[in-house]
Amino acid sequence: MNLTLTIPALLFPAVSLTMLAYNARYLAIAALIRQLHKQFEETEASPLKKQIKSLRKRLNIIKNMQATAIVSFLLAAVTMFLIYVEMRVWANIIFGISLVFLMVSLVLSLIEVQLSTKALGIQLKNMEK
Questions:
Q1: Segment 7-19, tens digit of pLDDT
Q2: Which residue among 8, 46, 74, 89 sits deepest, i.e. has the most Cβ atoms within 10 Å of its Cβ?
Q3: Burial 70-108 (b: 16+ CB within 10 A, else e)
Q4: Average of pLDDT values for 45-53?
Q5: Number of C-beta neighbours around residue 124 at 10 A
Q6: What's the pLDDT tens digit per position in 61-75?
Q7: HEC secondary structure over the chain
Q8: By C-alpha distance, which of 1, 30, 10, 21 is closest to 109?
């Protein structure tokens, strides 16, 4: 494959938008945790403990999603530098690793969305009682 500067450059907007989405999820969960913390201090209810445990797990996944996306972004920039200095073999290797990190980030995102959906399903089920 003939890797040009434009190929890794295509990852920049994709990863940037991905990071914005991940950050929005992080901020939403952070706000929910703060809200639940107030409720927990008042009631210490068992369902809140379960929600907090789930949120802690989701927060950890989001942190890993962000980290792998950042590594992917950084490696795409390194790839562009390697192409610029005409180190084509290394550029191909680093770009491949960058894509792997992006895929890991997306898989983590899928897992987090599944956990989020499951938590909402439990919440709705509790409301039906």
A1: 888 887 888 888 8
A2: 8
A3: ebbbebbebbbebbeeeeeeebbebbebbbebbebbeeb
A4: 72
A5: 9
A6: 999 999 999 999 999
A7: CCCCCHHHHCHHHHHHHHHHHHHHHHHHHHHHHHHHHHHHHHHCCHHHHHHHHHHHHHHHHHHHHHHHHHHHHHHHHHHHHHHHCCCHHHHHHHHHHHHHHHHHHHHHHHHHHHHHHHHHHHHHHHHHC
A8: 21
Q: 66 with 19: CB under 8 angstroms?
A: yes
Tell me how far apart the alpha carbons of residues 74 and 24 are, in angstroms, rounded to a whole number.
Answer: 21
Q: Which pair of structure tokens corresponds to residue 19? A: 């990071």
This prediction's pTM: 0.80
Whole-angstrom Cα distance, residue 84 to residue 102?
22
* Closest by Cα among 34, 84, 80 to 59: 34
- Locus of tokens 């084509």: 88
